[in-house]
Write a structure and sequence with these properties.
Number of strands: 6
Radius of gyration: 19 Å
Order of helices and strands: HHEHEHEEEEH
Shape: globular
Strand order of the largest sheet: 2-1-6-5-4-3
Distance between the termini: 74 Å
Number of helices: 5
Oligomer: single chain
Length: 170
Amino acid sequence: MKSLIIALAITSSTLLNAQQMEDYKQIQEAVSKLFINTDTNNWDGVEAQFAVKVTLDYSSMTGNSAAELTPKDITTSWKTVLPGFANTHHQIGNIIIESKEREAHLFCYGTATHYLEDDNGNIWTVVGSYDFDLVKIDNLWKISSMTFNYKYQDGNKALVTKAIENVKND
């Protein structure tokens, strides 16, 4: 009887670990898809990674307060600048995930490189980390909060204005 109880405990533990691993994979994939779709201007794909309402906080970089937005609000804003670059490349790493059933938190480092030809330099890079909160909705992990923790930026900061002008002129 004692060996049966131990076997059941090991099996239960293994199942829980397998579910956690699957959740971790899906959580990381949701955040990765957010950045991949952003870099390819796949705005429907970006919106699909978000919950119905999202707290977006870039205050450490912009000084603007965090705001609760819809996925469409977010992409509408991002579309005013990001397509104006020839290329963007978001890279994340040092990912740490904590999850409990239907809620999760993902921390990661992030670097965003923006490329646009310009006589004063073609690259603008922003470096920091992110804190994401996610919720499980209909068995899919959705981002409910995204906070960027600004560290530094380098390169041609004027590229942002040029990118905005490019979008306006298209």
